[in-house]
Amino acid sequence: MAPRKGTLLGETDFPLYCAHALGQHHFVVCGGGGQAKTGVPNAFEVFELANEHNQVVASSVIKYDKLDRAIMNSATVSDGKNHILAAGLEQDCQVYLLKHKVCTRKPEDKNELTTRKRRSNLTQSEEHKNAEKVITFDVDLVKTVQTDFDGDGGFQKVVRLSYDKTLLLTGGADGFLRIWNYPKMTKAHEIEAHDGEIEDLDISPSGNRIVTVSSDKHAYVWVTKDGSKHCELQWTKKTQTPYRYKACRYSVIEGNKEKCNLYTCHIPVKRGRKPTPCYISQWDSTKLVPRKIVDTGPEVISAFAVSDTGDYLGLGMISGSVAVYISFSLQRLYYVKEAHGIFITDVEFLSSSDSTRAITGDQDFSLLSISVDKQMRLHQVSARGRFNFLWVLVGFVIMIYFLFATLASYGF
């Protein structure tokens, strides 16, 4: 039976603000204590997943803490081996390359899991013939670019990388959508997109459209090629109180990047005495009209993610709760109340690949949640296919039993 609040994978020594899966066996968490000299580091840390005694565990393989500010938002993309990490530090975006490296570790140190101990025992020397091979990463700072120019100092709130790794997108306090050519980080387009802060943005799997949502209560779709406005999203839900967009995500359909859905989250502009619900909307990505709008309850949404297959939507709440919805029906599949003691800063689905499932088990999904409480928790639900088959089998046996009972009553 899964733990009531999800599996605790571990804790860091710094508050956590963003998390990303790195390939099939790793994930990275980012955060920090800020510029104040409190002794709390500003860092990102990479963890490796493993299965020990049918339990998913995570061990640190590298911690990078050469930062003067906390990472408040980030994005990653893989080239198949190495990973690009774009990190938001106040008004700047720093781009890092995490280079995959195979090292060896002394057999007697197999159970040591802390970053410092593991790194001290990694070596590429041939003299350790019996050493266990482990994967780690070299970290290179590639570029630092100022991406937000708000009059109060600037603050990047969101960054995304295109699927083909040619574009980097940023939005923040000054309301501008900026499209950068990657890896040169030259500016392709600078768009005065919103009157308020850009809360979130995403780029379609094909790369031809960008969606932005803002505290000004508007959401727009943009043409990537020339930066022109394609349209404004018109939310059709009738409510008694005003709402604003909180988050937006594209997702692939059946693994085809030319076919996609668009999802948005909506929260009340103000919280009154009477609890008001939040919503998830599923949009037709071609007609750009809502297909489904679902009430997610009164807990305010603080984090949103879509699985790599596009089958599941993950929600984190200000209350610390976690929920997962089936994407096509917007039916809630999983909910745990107050998994964290304070608001959730990010949720991230682990890979659905067979290699990852060999570690995480035969689960419908594996969702990572993080918070400023420094904890990393894993949320899972057993595969519905197996559960449904079991009930079909039970139903078939019962049907056969009653068939024979009926025949026996007639003397057959």
How many distinct helices? 3
Radius of gyration: 23 Å
Strand runs, count: 29
Could you give the distance between the termini?
Answer: 46 Å
Low-confidence stretches: 110-122, 386-392
The major sheet is characterized as: 5 strands, antiparallel
Indicate the percent of residues in helices. under 10%
Structure commentary:
By secondary structure, this protein is mainly beta. Helix content is 9%, strand content 52%. It contains 3 helices and 29 strands. The strands form 7 sheets. Strands 6, 7, 8, 9 and 10 form a 5-stranded antiparallel β-sheet that branches. A 4-stranded antiparallel β-sheet has the order 1-29-28-27. A hairpin with a 4-residue loop joins β13 and β14. The chain is globular, with a radius of gyration of 23 Å.
Task: Give a short overview.
The protein has three helices and 29 strands. The protein has 412 residues and is mainly beta.
Give the secondary structure arrangement, pairings included:
Layout: E1 7-11, E2 16-22, E3 26-32, E4 42-52, E5 55-64, E6 73-78, E7 83-89, E8 92-105, H1 115-120, E9 122-123, E10 132-146, E11 156-161, E12 167-172, E13 176-181, E14 186-192, E15 198-203, E16 209-214, E17 219-223, E18 229-232, E19 243-253, E20 256-268, E21 278-284, E22 290-297, E23 301-306, E24 312-317, E25 322-326, E26 331-336, E27 344-349, H2 354-360, E28 363-371, E29 375-382, H3 384-409
Antiparallel strand pairs: 1-29, 2-3, 3-4, 4-5, 6-7, 7-8, 8-9, 8-10, 11-12, 12-13, 13-14, 15-16, 16-17, 17-18, 19-20, 20-21, 21-22, 23-24, 24-25, 25-26, 27-28, 28-29
